Amino acid sequence: MATTWLNKVRWDDNGLVPVIVQEVESNDVLMFAFMNREALKRTVELGEAVFWSRSRKRLWHKGEESGHVQKVHEIRLDCDEDVVLLKVTQIHGIACHTGRHSCFFQKFEGTAEDGEWQTVDAVIKDPSTIYGSH
Questions:
Q1: H or E, element range at 33
Q2: How confident is the model at residue 107 (pLDDT cuts 50, 70, 90)?
Q3: CA 38, 44, 82, 2 torsion: positive or negative?
Q4: Which CATH number applies to 16-129: 3.10.20.810, 3.20.10.10, 1.10.3720.10, 3.40.50.150?
Q5: CA atoms within 13 A on the CB side of 2
């Protein structure tokens, strides 16, 4: 199978590209991750999100442990060809390892002098029941 389409992506010096994951129905931004060439190729082949885990140093099929798979509807490349956008259906509604819908659950409130981050989204499911104790 020809994979010349992968050459259009502007991979960084580590062979990675940033990925924004957006829910197709709500347009909520669910998470941010990275892909290498193999992860993007596998995502296309499976129709499910596969990332490069920098902490695990391996491919990571989203939901492989939690069951919170992301079904991919669209893959887009930005104008500079260095950021990928996935439009997905989030299975079970939980994208974040904290048990929340989105990884972006903290909102800045206040001023530059006295601001703070406020948690604005509730936990849908206790992470210890998803992953066990780590």
A1: strand 29-35
A2: very high
A3: positive
A4: 3.10.20.810
A5: 2
The helix or strand, by DSSP H or E, that contains position 40, with its residue range, turns out to be: helix 37-46
Which residues are within 8 A (CB) of 59 and not within 5 positions of it... i.e. 6 or more apart? 36, 38, 39, 42, 50, 51, 52, 53
User: Burial level of 84, CB count in 10 A (0-12/13-18/19+)?
Assistant: buried
Q: How far is CA 1 from the centre of its chain?
A: 26
Which 3 state secondary structure label does DSSP give 41?
helix
Write the pLDDT tens digit of every residue in 89-102.
999 999 999 999 99
Locate the domains of the chain by residue range.
16-129
